[in-house]
């Protein structure tokens, strides 16, 4: 098959690398792949190199060597081919789930001048000999290397192609799924800001353990008592736990030790990561300022503490091997500092999410990078300033914030610890000086204090001037907790302003009990969010500024009345915004009740544009039915 795309050679190779390194992104039946190092060889050395890798005399298998060269010759290049030969092991999910020993290996041959890559599958037979699967040899090539390149797929034995639907896909899949994906990746040709996933640990070991832990802890999804999405949070923490367990197992093997590493998870949240790590044999605990409902479900072997954490001498962990910061918010930049000061041998793992500096929100300083890339670089800088040699990796979790930083070792000798701490202190003070107003105060209110309050306050001032831990009771700031009278007043004022504008009025014929008549309904005009803000008094705006999203959030929350698109606010016309048949379907759902009054029926000069039967909201008190659902509790 040929697929015409606009593609440059460098775009072709970046796309091919995605398929070689991360086949699971397109073939969902795979967990991933591991690679061997590539070796550059000349055309004369190619045959000998392949014979040594496959254990097969290629001259005894007619067709393979000509196949490697055939399409290269067709390009018309006169230069001597330059080859790069390596290998990859493909890891199918089915093999992982069944704990089967079979893995699929391929020799990857890149013709760098001919813009061609060939895949030679090799297998181990029942007698332990390596055999070359001729029937599944295929080649991907970029022809006509101009602005209009052509991607093509060639196979050595198309009539004998064997497919198992997993590691050996069907030829139709390769042509209909893989080639279009390669074409898209080649034309995008965007260099990612981050490393490939699981670049620090063995993919095979991770994949096997992840499937085991996923099956082991999947029942937690059914009993999840928090308001958060159970599948996302459970399987995300399973994936993070898997990563740490493999990372620590590799560390034990490297150091020749058998005892499991200890840990402390700072800002542990729901505590599931701590529960899994404890359950898998690692001694440690989690600390968070707020206890979660699910904590009581884990049992006595999961160690969780409700305590406010401040960057100070009170919160050092000299006997702990690893500190963990999993979406630890305001503690994130402090975790490398706490690890460095806990002991020379203390390491850390941090997964940054929200952007915090040592005191307050992180302020951007580089517009050429994404905000996330800039923040990751900042935490990396903190780690380096604390004396760590830092690794960066990308996790396989259902989150856009999945880049982790790992401080496994120091860049200085233990005898230099005193000088290293001076450098840390200078760095932290330099960062704090960048903040316009660093408040030198006791950051512990009465609800935050634990133990000796005076000692903690003194220690906090030594380290973290201006650091403010989150409140023990999480404040809901999405406008949902504002007084109903306040919200109703803002809605009515904005709606009247929109209705007073000379907007186009829509007309629609309606049928009533008397007969047919033409009715006009005022849909109002539109205003920008900025113009709407100018309608409100100063105290109202000050109240809204304390909420996340402010005025725009309030307007969007009241979607029954308003439609906010492209920064413009409109009155919502339910006849045109949603098909009337869908509204009827919604109102007729089994057990559905009209639990809210229709704003238009009550306040609009022309009333509601829909009949009482078609409107999903109540037209007057007689149409209102109380909700049978329990009241929703605020998050705790």
Automatic annotation (TrEMBL):
Alphabetically ordered keywords of this record: Cytoplasm, Metal-binding, Methyltransferase, S-adenosyl-L-methionine, Transferase, tRNA processing, Zinc, Zinc-finger
The coiled-coil regions, if any, are none
Q: Which residues form the C3H1-type domain?
A: 592-622
| InterPro entries tied to this protein | tRNA_uracil_MeTrfase (IPR011671), Znf_CCCH (IPR000571)
Q: Where in the cell is it found?
A: Cytoplasm
Q: Tell me its EC number(s), please.
A: 2.1.1.211
Q: Where are the zinc fingers (C3H1-type)?
A: 592-622
Q: State whether keyword S-adenosyl-L-methionine applies.
A: yes
* Major place of residence: cytoplasm
Q: Which GO terms describe its molecular function?
A: tRNA(Ser) (uridine(44)-2'-O-)-methyltransferase activity; zinc ion binding
Catalytic reaction(s) noted: uridine(44) in tRNA(Ser) + S-adenosyl-L-methionine = 2'-O-methyluridine(44) in tRNA(Ser) + S-adenosyl-L-homocysteine + H(+)
Biological processes, Gene Ontology terms: tRNA methylation
A GO CC annotation recorded here is: cytoplasm
UniProt record similarity statement: Belongs to the TRM44 family.
Matching PANTHER family, A to Z? TRNA (URACIL-O(2)-)-METHYLTRANSFERASE-RELATED
* Purpose of the protein: Adenosyl-L-methionine (AdoMet)-dependent tRNA (uracil-O(2)-)-methyltransferase.
Please state what the protein is called: tRNA (uracil-O(2)-)-methyltransferase
